[in-house]
Amino acid sequence: QLQVVESGGGLVQPGGSLRLSCAASGFTLDYYEIGWFRQAPGKDYEGVSCMSSSDGSAYYADSVKGRFTISRGDARNTVYMEMNNLKPEDTAVYYCAADFRFLCSDVVKQRGRLFEIWGQGRLVTVSS
């Protein structure tokens, strides 16, 4: 079964940091793009970060460039997203997601639930 499972998240003060983790199973990241979406209250899904299956290049939404970093773990089926200098507007439910149809370069440029395989989501709240 194709599946991704997230861990991490929680409550953090503005300027703080958090790390999200995603473990994939049932498919290989050699052929699937994998990354993170988020949905803030009252808003559509937004592609935040994404790692390409072709060369491992990382893509980011403009709103998080310089603050968020997506990376592969030592375990080949694991990806992380480090979130630094968090802002209240980063508050959202964050989802790990994977897909073989869409490209990372596409999903970070627009809103929508474009990927095929989704985790349950992890709430990140940035508040003082």
Could you characterize what this model shows?
The protein is mainly beta and 128 residues long. The chain contains one helix and eleven strands, in the order βββββββββαββ. The strands form two sheets. Strands 2, 4, 5, 6, 9, 10 and 11 form a seven-stranded mixed β-sheet that branches. A four-stranded antiparallel β-sheet has the order 1-3-8-7, with no helix packed on it. β7 and β8 form a beta hairpin. 35% of the residues are buried.
Topology:
Elements (H helix, E strand, L loop, with lengths): L2 E6 L1 E3 L5 E8 L7 E7 L6 E6 L6 E3 L7 E5 L5 E6 L8 E8 L4 H4 L9 E2 L3 E5 L2
Parallel strand pairs: 2-11
Antiparallel strand pairs: 1-3, 3-8, 4-5, 4-9, 5-6, 7-8, 9-10, 9-11
List the keywords:
128 residues; mainly beta; 7-stranded mixed β-sheet; 4-stranded antiparallel β-sheet; 1 helix; 3% helix; globular
Q: Give the structural class.
A: mainly beta
Whole-number mean pLDDT: 94
Strand-residue fraction? over 45%
- In whole angstroms, the N-to-C terminal distance is 40 Å
Radius of gyration (CA) equals 13 Å
Tell me the helix content: under 10%
* Anisotropy-based shape: globular
Uncertain parts: none
SSE string, helices as H and strands as E = EEEEEEEEEHEE
Q: Concise description?
A:
The protein is mainly beta and 128 residues long. It has one helix and eleven strands. Strand 4 and strand 5 form a beta hairpin.
